[in-house]
Amino acid sequence: MLPDQDWCNVYPTAAPFKPSAVPLPVRMGYPVKRGVPPEKTGNLELVKIPNFLHLMPVAIRNHCAALKEFCTQWPSALSSDELSEKHFPIEFQTVDYVSAGPSLRNPKARVVSMQVKLSSLNLDDHSRKKFIKLAGSRYNAANDTLTLRSDRILQRVETNTNQLQRINGRLSLAQATIERLKGNKKAIKTAENHFYVPDLEQVPEIDVPYSLPDLLGVADDLMYSADLGPGIAPNAPGVPIPDLYKYIQKTEAWESEKEESDMEEFTWEGSRSEKSALETLLRGRFSSTPQEQILQNPTVQQYRSAELAQPRRAGGEY
């Protein structure tokens, strides 16, 4: 090998150990009778172990230089994490793996997680409570974050390394990266905006909530299985699931039938405690005072705060 040989042309992509291409006196194996370990030629032990000869510093520098064409400077207005979360509340998380073995595919690389704070969704009190109820364990009340995970993203079926190899095995890592980015701009945009669940078509930015099939007003085509989770009934393949974000903003007829004992938390407005206090004050010296002014009275506000501070069990009871 020449001293000025371009190493990226020798190992353009991940490949097993090639003794004729590696100019190093590598030895590995079990020495026989305290002898010298086998040399690199015909050594199966060197072929079996993973190598990163395609990720040498020169290849990484070329890779980074090729990616600069698709990079822009970080916006100066986003000087803190708080500003980034304010303007870009939705966060996608993916992990790429470098594997060694018969296949470069890794099932963990298909997993895509989406996180968003409920405070950034502009929900009223009714929609927020309904959203939390449907999300179940996906909602973390400690940091007000909703986390959705899916391993069926269309553009994450294969690892990035395997996609680069399928473009052209003879291309260098930097050239293959450029070809992949140029050819998949539209596909990448689709992958960023949609989750994909089998038999549910494309669901915009939402996963399938497990409690959704049990609610009224949902399509009868939905089915639920304790083993497989929610899905589409066999007699109606390909029916899209309702958009959860729009669904929670609707008030169904059955929701008006909820009583105070059915509430998840105690609410002073419209409760029996508020009505009892108004009736008591209207029979006394506040008989000619409008109800709005009575509710703004400091004594009534103090009583309201004391009622809200009382620990209650589910259903609003003491």
3D structure, described in words:
With 318 residues, the protein is of the alpha+beta class. It folds into 3 domains: 7-69, no CATH class; 81-209, no CATH class; 258-309, no CATH class. It is built from 12 helices and 8 strands. The termini are far apart. Mean pLDDT is 70; it is low at 157-174, 184-242 and 313-318.
Fraction in beta strands: 5-15%
- Largest β-sheet summary: 4 strands, antiparallel
- The radius of gyration computed from the alpha-carbon positions, rounded to a whole number of angstroms, is 31 Å
Q: What's the number of helices?
A: 12
Distance between the termini: 84 Å
Q: Look at the structure and give the mean pLDDT.
A: 70
Tally of individual domains:
3
For the biggest β-sheet, the strand order reads 1-2-4-3
- Percentage of helical residues? 25-40%
Order of helices and strands: HHHHEEHEEHHHEEEEHHHH
Number of strands: 8
In one word, what is the shape? elongated
Please identify the structural class as seen in this structure. Answer: alpha+beta
InterPro entries: Ribosomal_mS35_mit (IPR019349), Ribosomal_mS35_mt (IPR039848), WASH1_WAHD (IPR021854)
Biased composition (Polar residues): 286-304
Region (Disordered): 284-318
Domain Small ribosomal subunit protein mS35 mitochondrial conserved: 89-166
